[in-house]
Fold:
Amino acid sequence: MLLTEIDHIAIAVRDLEAAVEYYQKAFGATIDHREVVESDGVEEVLMKVAESYIQLLTPTNPDSPVAKAIEKRGEGLHHIGYRVNNCAEALASMIAAGATPIDKAPRPGSRGTTVAFMHPKGSFGTLIELVQE
Ligand code: CO
Structure:
């Protein structure tokens, strides 16, 4: 098994402050990491749950893929991050299994990770992100 953990569940929201406040009030959640990833056009907040994270994502500009996703489908579940030991190996394995890569090679993600995204088409409707810490 190449997957070692559910790294994160990413939820796309319009108002990041309101969403964070909701998670704090509802669950007593605390912010473990906050980062603007300009190359992806997102600002994200990570809240740790055991060894995984809930990731609240909001677009930083109207051309961001997350902005387009919210426009098309509304707020909600955006992608699942699967943690792996070796992103390149998992990417090759997924492609061999018929997945459609968005990233042809591993690239830098937030909090110093190495990541690769796979299109929902070819992965049974789920946008999958491979995350190597
Ligand atoms: Co992610």
